[in-house]
Amino acid sequence: xxxxxxxxxxxxxFQRIGGKYKGRILWVLREGVLRYGELNRAVIGITPKMxxxxxxxxxxDELIVRKxxxxxxxxxxxxxxxxxxxxxxxxxxxxxxGEKQMxxx
Length: 105
What we know:
This protein has a 3-stranded antiparallel beta sheet with strand order 1-3-2. The N and C termini lie far apart (35 Å). It is an alpha+beta fold. It is built from 5 helices and 3 strands; from the N terminus they run ααβααββα.
């Protein structure tokens, strides 16, 4: 994201959280720390490749933290940063709006 120039604050925000899976991953992580497999099960329809790519993007944008434990088998956990946690109320509002629109159709 850091290489793309945003034209306004809204553009900047959507560059960081836009896309098919970023909001869903952030929403799932609102409840706490999850391992890769737990995220893969929680985000319906995402491929392992796309999950890995999206997690790397969210980590690069400092919205999530990836913690690696040096053990066998390897253990990796993901959690929200403080910046990521700031997005949860906004995602909650978007979720409410989406539910209302879906029920109207």
